[in-house]
Amino acid sequence: MSISIGIHDLSFATSEFVLPHTALAEHNGTDIGKYHVGIGQRSMSVPAADEDIVTMAATAAAPIVARHSKDRIRTVVFATESSIDQAKAGGVYVHSLIGLPSACRVVELKQACYGATAALQFAIGLVRRDPAQQVLVIASDVSKYELDSPGEATQGAAAVAMLVGADPALVRIEEPSGLFTADVMDFWRPNYRDTALVDGQESISAYLQAVEGAWKDYAQQDGRSLEEFAAFVYHQPFTKMAYKAHRHLLEFCGHDADRDALERALGSTTAYNTVVGNSYTASVYLGLAALLDRADDLTGRPVAFLSYGSGSVAEFFAGTVVAGYREHLRTEENREAIARRKPVDYAGYRALHERSLPADGGDHSTPAQTTGPYRLAGISGHKRVYEAR
Ligand code: CAA
From the UniProt record, which GO molecular function terms apply (predicted)? Predict the structure, then answer.
């Protein structure tokens, strides 16, 4: 009999500041209905000057190593598409900040928003090889589009940390997976830019094509039938996208895609993403956190995941929620991570958006803004300097 492997613990963190969409709408004269209803977003997380993907990742991962022994973690896989260095893995800073043992491999992984799902699957492979080991999977991203562009309303920032191991306490990840890759230019970020480029409508079509492709492969691999799933956790660049995607899947499979069917499948998965914004690699796992925190008892129920990364790669897979999972949730901490954010006004957000770290190799400290446990204290000789409180 094959061993049960999956997500043993899940914790997330987001930024110090939050911009309500009402402030953005007031600035650019957009009807707020377009944001609240049209794309399904209410606010976006905005990182402080001294926050980045590393500080958010360490903040997400620290409660996991506080609850579990560090000794079984021999691998850290850090998934991101807003990387801070072309060579050094962001996870190496996190490894140091949270005090993991030196007998550990750390690597960074990229394929747009899909990267964390690759990390999860690779982690499962490592645990299958040696079930005594656990893998820390971290997804951390800051989503940044040009000011006054259509994508601006879908920005956000968050990190999710997941401990992957045998006999998981939360979700057992199943085989098979449905896979899909297509070479498309729907969303990308060349190395010389800090904001993403996107063809908005093309990106929506590419996502829908990927849902269909990944589902077809899942069905061919003898996966479960659609009716078996208690809920569907989609990548949510904006929460309305999950509704578009699920409607597409239901119709493709010849089912009615009425309001009730969509709400039943997705209703509990959007609560965090609607107020955090796009967190790229973390988004689908923020959807899972919301589902586990908010849905009625899911014990023993299969849940579907659709992970999409522009460019594009998608994976459709299933997980079964484990008996007793509620005792291991971090529902209060999750609510607090969102509630503790401080509202920033439009001018304050714009100033943060326009900031970039000096690239002159000198000594520069960053303004002390975050009240979180880790901060980017500055940059010195081209080296980022982090500190823990
Ligand atoms: N009240 C209610 N609804 C309104 C409204 C109002 N007053 N005004 C407009 N709307 C609706 C529109 O009808 C539309 O709904 P439908 O899509 O259901 O027709 C919706 O609001 C959005 O309106 P537009 O299409 O006119 O909006 P836009 O052109 O400004 O851009 C966007 C929308 C393309 C999503 C843009 O925000 C964008 O480019 N975002 C970034 C790209 C993205 O997130 N793509 C998603 C797929 S790619 C992916 O998933 C990877 C990733 O993470 C980036």
Answer: acyltransferase activity, transferring groups other than amino-acyl groups; hydroxymethylglutaryl-CoA synthase activity
Give distance in angstroms: CA of 204 to centre of ligand 1. Answer: 9
- Model pLDDT for residues 79-129, shown as the tens digit of each residue: 999 999 999 999 999 999 999 999 999 999 999 999 999 999 999 999 999
What integer pLDDT is reported at residue 1 of this predicted model? 58
Q: How confident is the model at residue 49 (pLDDT cuts 50, 70, 90)?
A: very high
CATH of the domain at 171: 3.40.47.10
The runs of H, that is alpha helices, within 82-171 are 90-97, 115-129
Tokens standing for residue 97: 């900040």
Q: Which residue lies with its CA nearest to atom 13 of ligand 1? A: 38
Among 39, 197, 244, 286, the mutation site with the greatest number of ligand 1 atoms within 8 A of its Cβ is 39
**Cα 354–chain centre separation:** 24
Residue 69 has pLDDT above 90, yes or no: no
Q: For residue 106, what is the enclosing H or E element?
A: strand 105-109
Cis status of the peptide bond prior to 312, with omega within 30 of 0? yes
Distance CA 248, CA 306 (A): 13
Q: How many domains does the chain have?
A: 1
Q: Which of 197, 194, 196, 268 is nearest to 236 (CA)?
A: 268
State whether residue 14 is helix, strand or coil: strand
Contact 282, 160 (CB under 8 A): yes
**Residue 360 labeled ligand binder:** no
Choose the residue to mutate in 111, 198, 208, 246 for probing ligand 1, maximizing ligand atoms within 8 Å of C-beta.
Answer: 198
31 is in an annotated binding site: yes
